[in-house]
């Protein structure tokens, strides 16, 4: 416990999810297939030819039909915000359709109605690892410049329809992850080991331009909207004090920071251009692209934070750990989750300070949490999960957010990842649970889909009620 009073009144507290990981109903009401429908095992195995019935995401946790009940539980915890994504293929089933699918649009109206009823501010991710499959197969995803136009058509529909109801928007989930997971993150159908650096970095460029274009369209159609980029944050520490390790760590860190630099400053930094030259990559950047980037910078920077990594210039010391989508050198000072993600609460304070010093933009922590195996038990006749490990993880990280606030960092809010159990992105498991709410569904697809409050549910409600004083 500490006595921090740093969390300001308007601080947005809540939870985060993504459509493909919770909704299910994968073909309902005119929805088209997304890349997730051919990723039954996440990024651990290559995509399948078509949908297979071992894909948990086909039903996921059935949020499509249970959203009202779930949002009521979020409200019970006192959320002031809820981050969710819109499934692109519900709105444009093939991605390149001329007209949007009204039934898909109507679903998100119903979700927004429910949030409004409870006074919960929506925070919407426009594209969260769910590119329409047709765009992957017919265009090779973001490698193709045409994707910019399809994305623009999609965001125009979103801002026109929801612009008066949704203030906070994120253009691409973890936009920097396309380098590591080109199919999941960028809808790039070419297998990773056959993908040329030129195509990969051209895809990155197209996404950055599309992100700026979304900001431009928002200014036109939804003048009250606030647009943020979203970055997978992973502070990179030198493995030793050897200056070569320090430089190597800076270089690796910049592979992530570059994405914030472009979104905030509106141009590619010199170090990024150098790294492209050294890869032999010559980008196709038009004058219009340059103008779009320069004139449409973001209002805020959002990010996910789960772990930090180390880096070294000495190949013989490269003990590679597991960690989110990004491989990294293991930190001998840190413990790891059951999935090998190294737990580092102070790293969150470091990231917040680094981003604030660098960008001077309001920051929003839109993902953070512990994936763990939970056991449903009965306590005083009530079925629950005694998830003290999750409480400890979240508590330690929120204490560091409080420290960053004391440091003077402007933090808009915090949405913990997977506030209700969902299907994991990297491994497509339900047994890797993040939620305050347990969902009775197992990796083999069995289960009643019933919801149960975990111990962390009450803990989080108290943290929110006391605005952090209970930490
Ligand atoms: C982030 C993604 O990478 O981390 C989420 O934005 C994802 O979609 C989360 O679920 C946790 O990762 P995982 O692989 O444990 O689900």
Automatic annotation (TrEMBL):
<dbReference type="Pfam" id="PF00232">
    <property type="entry name" value="Glyco_hydro_1"/>
</dbReference>
<dbReference type="InterPro" id="IPR001360">
    <property type="entry name" value="Glyco_hydro_1"/>
</dbReference>
<protein>
    <submittedName>
        <fullName>Glycoside hydrolase family 1 protein</fullName>
    </submittedName>
</protein>
<keyword id="KW-0378">Hydrolase</keyword>
<comment type="similarity">
    <text>Belongs to the glycosyl hydrolase 1 family.</text>
</comment>
<dbReference type="InterPro" id="IPR017853">
    <property type="entry name" value="GH"/>
</dbReference>
<dbReference type="InterPro" id="IPR033132">
    <property type="entry name" value="GH_1_N_CS"/>
</dbReference>
<dbReference type="GO" id="GO:0016787">
    <property type="term" value="F:hydrolase activity"/>
</dbReference>
<keyword id="KW-0326">Glycosidase</keyword>
<feature type="active site" description="Nucleophile">
    <location>
        <position position="367"/>
    </location>
</feature>
<dbReference type="InterPro" id="IPR018120">
    <property type="entry name" value="Glyco_hydro_1_AS"/>
</dbReference>
């Amino acid at each position: 416990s500490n006595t921090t009073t740093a969390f300001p009144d308007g601080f947005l507290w809540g939870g985060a999810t993504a459509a493909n990981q919770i909704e299910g109903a994968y073909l309902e009401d005119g929805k088209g297939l997304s890349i997730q429908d051919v990723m039954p095992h996440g990024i651990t195995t290559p995509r399948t030819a078509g949908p297979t019935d071992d894909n948990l995401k086909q039903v996921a946790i059935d949020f499509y039909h249970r959203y009202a009940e779930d949002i009521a539980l979020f409200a019970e915890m006192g959320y002031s915000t809820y981050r969710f994504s819109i499934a692109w293929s519900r709105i444009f089933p093939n991605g390149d359709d001329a007209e949007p699918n009204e039934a898909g649009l109507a679903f998100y109206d119903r979700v927004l109605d429910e949030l409004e009823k409870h006074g919960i501010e929506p925070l919407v991710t426009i594209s969260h690892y769910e590119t329409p499959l047709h765009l992957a197969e017919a265009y090779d995803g973001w490698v193709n410049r045409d994707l910019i136009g399809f994305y623009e058509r999609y965001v125009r529909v979103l801002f026109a329809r929801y612009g008066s109801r949704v203030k906070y928007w994120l253009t691409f989930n973890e936009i920097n992850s396309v380098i590591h997971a080109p199919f999941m993150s960028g809808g790039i159908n070419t297998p990773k080991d056959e993908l040329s650096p030129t195509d990969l970095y051209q895809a990155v460029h197209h996404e950055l331009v599309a992100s700026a274009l979304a900001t431009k369209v928002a200014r036109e159609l939804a003048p009250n909207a606030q647009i943020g980029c979203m970055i997978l944050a992973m502070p990179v520490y030198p493995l030793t004090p050897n200056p070569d390790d320090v430089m190597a760590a800076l270089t690796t860190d910049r592979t992530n920071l570059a994405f914030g630099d472009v979104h905030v400053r509106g141009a590619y930094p010199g170090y990024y251009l150098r790294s492209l030259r050294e890869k032999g990559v010559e980008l196709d950047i038009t004058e219009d692209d340059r103008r779009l980037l320069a004139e449409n910078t973001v209002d805020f920077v959002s990010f996910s934070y789960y772990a930090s990594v180390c880096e070294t210039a000495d190949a013989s010391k490269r003990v590679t750990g597991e960690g989110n989508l990004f491989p990294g050198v293991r930190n001998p000072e840190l413990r790891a989750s059951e999935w090998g993600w190294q737990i580092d609460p102070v790293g969150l304070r470091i990231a917040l300070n680094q981003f604030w010093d660098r960008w001077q933009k309001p920051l929003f922590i839109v993902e953070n949490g512990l994936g763990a195996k939970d056991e449903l038990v009965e306590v005083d006749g009530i079925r629950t999960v005694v998830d003290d490990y999750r409480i400890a993880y979240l508590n330690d990280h929120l204490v560091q957010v409080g420290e960053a606030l004391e440091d003077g960092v402007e933090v808009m809010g915090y949405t913990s990842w997977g506030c209700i159990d969902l299907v994991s992105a990297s491994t497509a498991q339900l047994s890797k649970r993040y939620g305050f709410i347990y969902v009775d569904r197992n990796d083999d697809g069995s289960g009643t889909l019933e919801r149960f409050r975990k111990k962390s549910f009450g803990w989080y409600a108290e943290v929110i009620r006391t605005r952090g004083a209970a930490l």
